[in-house]
Specification:
heterodimer; A: 114 residues; seven-stranded mixed beta sheet; 11 strands; 0% helix; B: 111 residues; four-stranded antiparallel beta sheet
Chain lengths: 114, 111
């Protein structure tokens, strides 16, 4: 029973490039959450999605960041025109029902912007 | 607003020592409280939780009690093992959809 999968595990980009991070939730889960962990900080909520819908994006930066969770395929977190400050670990979590207090986390994608 | 303040690390203990990792929170209303653990190279795993005041969460020898009067949820274990070496995160959630995490406390247990 596969858990939450994220790829790539490590991603290196130069300033100005685009970064695409993928998250496949646990089988049967339709709720996906993205978090960002900056160095020496805790995880910060970014966005909560259900299939084809963004439910809560209150933690997303207003510019350059976007997220989607299409009907088929993984959830994608996209960062356009990356800057050095975007270097962080990005974690995805999934849950089976809305309001469930158990979120299952993936191993994270570590983004390094040169 | 909602926030979690967690004891700074890193923490290094000898095997069989007693562990306490402090966690205090700020929240309106009555949040649920959690401890997550992250082993090297892996994602966060739920360790234990408590959903109302005076509840005690426990798992794998770890315990934490939801103290509303002190807004705390300290993690304790009576006798740590080398396999407990990991990063521990305290977190709260109001709705179950958005979690607020502490900065994490790294624990190393030496034989």
């Amino acid at each position: 029973n596969a858990g939450v999968m994220q790829n790539p595990r490590h991603l290196v980009r130069r300033r100005g490039q685009e970064a695409r991070l993928r998250c496949s939730p646990m089988k049967g889960h339709s709720h996906v959450y993205w978090y960002r962990q900056l160095p020496e900080e805790g995880l910060k909520f970014m966005v909560y999605l259900q299939k084809e819908n963004i439910i809560d994006e209150s933690g997303m930066p207003k510019e350059r960041f976007s997220a989607e969770f299409p009907k088929e395929g993984p959830s994608i977190l996209r960062i356009q025109q990356v800057v050095r400050g975007d270097s962080a670990a990005y974690f995805c979590a999934s849950s089976g029902t809305t309001g469930s207090d158990t979120q299952y986390f993936g191993p994270g994608t570590r983004l390094t912007v040169l | 607003g909602n926030s979690v303040t967690q004891m700074e690390g890193p923490v290094t203990l000898s095997e069989e020592a007693f562990l306490t990792i402090n966690c205090t929170y700020t929240a309106t209303g009555y949040p649920s409280l959690f401890w997550y653990v992250q082993y090297p190279g892996e994602g966060l795993q739920l360790l234990l939780k408590a959903t109302k005041a005076d509840d005690k969460g426990s798992n794998k020898g770890f315990e934490a009690t939801y103290r509303k009067e002190t807004t705390s949820f300290h993690l304790e274990k009576g006798s740590v093992q080398v396999s407990d070496s990991a990063v521990y995160f305290c977190a709260l959630s109001k709705t179950g959809n958005q979690f607020y995490f502490g900065t994490g406390t790294s624990l190393t247990v030496i034989p």
